[in-house]
Design brief:
The chain is α/β, with parallel strands linked by helices. It is 37% helix and 26% strand.
Length: 271
């Protein structure tokens, strides 16, 4: 009888021990999984970067730039903040991208590591749509972003938007002047409806509450009122082509597009 009680007790003790072991293993497993989310992967990444950065073959020796057309490569590299000789795996690609995208002339930027010793900077520059004349001359993109302009660096064959404002701008600001935005919108309409007229467009400006355009050939001024639409621009394109073919373009002083379906042409020295 005593032996039966002993065997029963020993079995119960074995069961309780197994249960405690399973509980201990399960709790330990949960702690390891939970803690690895905070320090496991970062520790592994840091140790890998540290080990690789110790080799001379993994130091930054070349910085390659692609997509630059107006910005100088040295300006882009300085903006990225990468120093030649820095361990390749200590360069933060995310931070480099953020620094580049903060430059007003850069629309998108991506930094790529190329083993064994190269960082590649892929950028897309903003494309200016026109020049803006306020207190100084700026360039402006189709989405109204103002960009600094160095007229000594290169020539710009872009139409000029003349603004009647004393507002000071900073690089990367948005053009918020109501009339300036209206001029930019009218320029976009011209590009969509009559793109062949764009190279001939010299200026867009406001005069006494009405929008005017000046074209280079013949120095013709066009009165737009609040702005013209597709029919007006296409009619103007056809009219200017006909006047140029008849060699009468230099005789034209103004063209009035304010009236739908009707174009009024005023000639110089008209009797």
């Amino acid at each position: 009888m005593a032996s039966k009680k002993t065997r029963s007790k020993s079995r119960g003790e074995i069961y309780r021990r197994q249960k405690r072991r399973r509980r201990t293993f399960f709790v330990t497993f949960l702690l390891v999984v939970a803690s690895s989310a905070f320090w496991g992967w970062p520790a592994l990444r840091w140790s890998t970067d540290y080990l690789l950065s110790g080799f001379d073959n993994y130091r930054t020796r070349t910085i390659r730039v692609s997509g630059a057309h107006r910005l100088n490569e040295s300006v882009i590299i300085n903006t990225a903040g990468i120093i030649e000789g820095t361990p390749l795996f200590q360069v933060s690609l995310r931070k480099v991208g953020e620094l580049l995208r903060a430059h007003p002339w850069i629309r998108t930027a991506t930094a790529i590591r190329r083993l064994p010793d190269t960082i590649e900077l892929q950028i897309e520059e903003r494309e200016p749509a026109a020049l803006v004349s306020a207190q100084s001359v700026w360039s402006v993109t189709s989405d109204s972003i103002l960009l600094p302009l160095d007229t000594r660096a290169q020539s710009w064959n872009l139409p000029l938007l003349r603004l009647q404002t004393r507002t000071s701008f900073l690089p990367g600001d948005s053009l918020r002047d109501t009339r300036g935005c209206a001029l930019l919108s009218e320029l976009a309409s011209l590009k969509n409806c009559a793109p062949r007229l764009c190279p001939n467009l010299s200026e867009l400006y406001w005069n006494r509450g009405e929008m005017w355009a000046v074209f280079q050939k013949g120095n013709v001024e066009v009165r737009l009122g609040d702005g013209t639409g597709e029919i007006g621009w296409k009619s103007l394109e056809k009219l200017l082509a006909g006047l140029e073919a008849r060699q009468r373009l230099t005789d034209v002083e103004t063209i009035d597009l304010r009236f739908t379906g009707r174009i009024i042409v005023s000639y110089r020295n008209a009797s």
